[in-house]
Amino acid sequence: MIHIYFAAKDVRWDEYEAPLRKALDEKGLSYSLSDKCDDPSIIDYIVYAPNGPLKDFSPFSRAKAVLSLWAGVEDVVGNPTLKIPLARMVDSGLSEGMVEWVTGHVLRHHLGMDLHIHGQDGVWRDYVPPLARTRTVGILGLGALGQACGEALSALNFNVLGWSKSKKQLDNITCHSGEEGLKTVLRSSEILVLLLPKTPETENILNIETLALMPKGAKIINPGRGPLINDDALLAALDSGQTGHATLDVFRIEPLPADHPYWAHPNVTVTPHIASETRSDTASQVIAENIRRGEAGLPYLHLVNRTAGY
Ligand code: NDP
User: Fold this and answer.
1) CATH number of the domain bearing residue 123
2) pLDDT for the residue numbered 9
3) Cα 219 from Cα 217, distance rounded (Å)
4) 253 shares its domain with 149
5) If pLDDT is split at 50, 70 and 90, which confidence band does 12 have?
6) Which SUPFAM superfamilies does this chain map to (predicted)?
């Protein structure tokens, strides 16, 4: 019997219990699954969410792995009580949602939709937007989400440039890496999408110097993590017109405080960390597959590199 502890908020349990049981049953596993844990010493797998109650992993003496429901693991990766493998979430439903959100916001800027949505004032402005094939979109982060968004944008004919830590070769994305690669992507990107994890290396990656490299009036779209951007630098770039608009889904402090300048800035769109989320039906299959692998002695899917921090 495998003991699985669902260590996330109660509201998530209602959503996840049925699909998780279904996915575990389909794997033919014999298990107990609960969102309560009276005896940590019998737990084999911990299904984890950073907003749940669990912060100290040390009582889980026989646990084999922590399986995160979230893609971003910055709040748990450095936990000194966590000494067993940590897997993050790569979920087709999460990717699907991110592709839709990113594509929508890129198209808003590409097509200049605001001109008509906010400018219906009796003036006939016959501005015809350019075709996507003339527009370069940069994506910082070419992981599960960055690649999915890059593929979708490329299918719409955008010229897509991407940047990642390791050098990649992808069919429809011109890939860059390293410091010079970052500069190349920034210099060409009229629209830039941030899909990097938050790590010590990526914090403040958009700052005064890097924002200044971009074409004047470039648009920033950040569904990655708030600390990727130096907020003071972005506000200064927006005020000077160097940055044309910022669509921000994630922030250093969430919820974004009501008096934060982003709320009132005419060239900032705030969305409340809703770009996408893990979907219980598809994510349950990933969790069940990882438990099957753990029991079969196979390597886990989507293992976090604890040193790299993602
Ligand atoms: P992955 O781990 O699959 O991809 C991360 C990418 O970032 C990889 O391409 C990686 O490079 C690159 N990267 C990491 N560090 C560096 C660095 N120092 N320099 C250059 N590139 C770097 O993550 P996902 O695509 O699954 O998710 C990305 C992020 O999206 C999450 O960490 C999370 O913060 C955010 N997110 C936001 C959501 C929202 O609703 N707003 C929902 C879900 C996730 P390499 O490929 O070489 O390893």
Assistant:
1) 3.40.50.720
2) 74
3) 7
4) yes
5) confident
6) NAD(P)-binding Rossmann-fold domains (SSF51735)
303 located within any domain: no
Give the strand order in the sheet containing 174-177: 174-177, 159-164, 136-140, 191-194, 218-222, 243-248, 268-270
- Structure ipTM over 0.90, yes or no: yes
Cα of 27 vs centre of ligand 1, distance in Å, is: 29
As for ligand 1, residues whose beta carbon falls within 6 Å of it are 71-72, 90, 94, 141-146, 163-166, 195-199, 201-202, 223-225, 249-250, 273, 275-277, 310
Do 86 and 98 sit in the same domain of this protein? no
Give me the percent of the chain exceeding a pLDDT of 90.
95
pLDDT digit string, tens, across residues 38-86: 999 999 999 999 877 799 999 999 999 999 999 999 999 999 999 999 9
Residue 186 lies in a domain: yes
Q: Is residue 304 part of a domain?
A: no
Q: Give Dmax over CA atoms of the chain in angstroms.
A: 71
Residues 245 and 110 reside in one and the same domain? yes
> Could you list the residue range(s) of the whole structural domain that residue 164 is in?
93-270
Integer angstrom CA distances of residue 92 from 58, 169, 279: 32, 22, 8
Average confidence score pLDDT of the chain: 97
- Same domain, residue pair 134 and 21: no
Task: Output the residue whose Cα is nearest ligand 1's atom 15.
Answer: 165
Active-site residue, 265 included: no
- pLDDT tens across 74-121, in order? 999 999 999 999 999 999 999 999 999 999 999 999 999 999 998 899
Domain count, the chain: 2
Q: In what order do the strands lie in the sheet with 65-68?
A: 31-34, 2-7, 45-48, 65-68, 86-87
